[in-house]
Amino acid sequence: MHLECELSIITINYNGLKDTCALIETIPFNDKMEVIVVDNASTKDEISAIQKKFSYVNVIRSDKNLGFAGGNNLGIKAAKGKYIFLVNNDTIFKEFKIQALINRLESSDDIGIVCPKIRFTWGSNQIQYAGYTPLSKITVRNQAIGFGEEDKGQYETAHPTPYAHGAAMLIKREALGKVGLMPECYFLYYEELDWSMMFTRAGYQIWYEPACTIYHKESQTTGQNSPLRTYYITRNRLLLVKRNYKGLNKYLAYGYLIGLVALKDIFRFGIKCQWGLLKATIKGIHNFINTHFS
User: Fold this and answer.
1) Fewer CB under 10 Å: which end of the chain, C or N?
2) First to last CA, the chain
3) What are the beta bridge partners of residue 29?
4) Contact 72, 38 (CB under 8 A)
5) How far apart are CA 182 and CA 193, in angstroms?
């Protein structure tokens, strides 16, 4: 592919016109970049409004909702930049310091992805992400470093991190030829963790770079406690284990996630009469088992 610009910024729009426009307005467009909006089959014609307001934006409409990975992959296939910046549409910049991410990405041939510091848009803009801790080999849990903390400059040192954050990540295009596109089997949630593991297995490092900060509204699309989110979180934790865990740890993780976590969730949702969440949990387990072990 002939690269025609330095930076391709890709975001997915799904019934999120207001958020998408708010993000684009914080990007100081220039002739060294392109902005691509992938419309993931929004229920209304939001493409026309985006094109009318931002004539320089390349809008790609998918006829069906391809999920987080599928939508991003569609954008990546159309991108012409040397660097690919995947960013959630429910984020904004206050200062556009993408060059700091590019500099970090180019500081070593071994670095494949760089993520900025991520802070919440609400309240006092507490930290959401300053890197991740490793996933537990049994519980499949980890923590975002700095989550919920006031930003007092305590995470101003760049460092390697096991996983990229799906809300904002800059990717070296040449690494994609070795690693491949984001796995589309997840649809929502956990795909960036799996992709991060794919990068690591291919010999690349992932870095956190605090010289750039992005602000995240967090879960404006699916809701924090929706049946949709519950279903995919339940199913995809198991899928992540299947694709990345080996030996005894794989079966211990299955036992923990199904025999403890899922049963606890089912009991809790039942006590609270949250039948939609209860059904979503059962459906997530059933779908995983039926798809991967039938």
Assistant:
1) C
2) 41
3) none
4) yes
5) 10
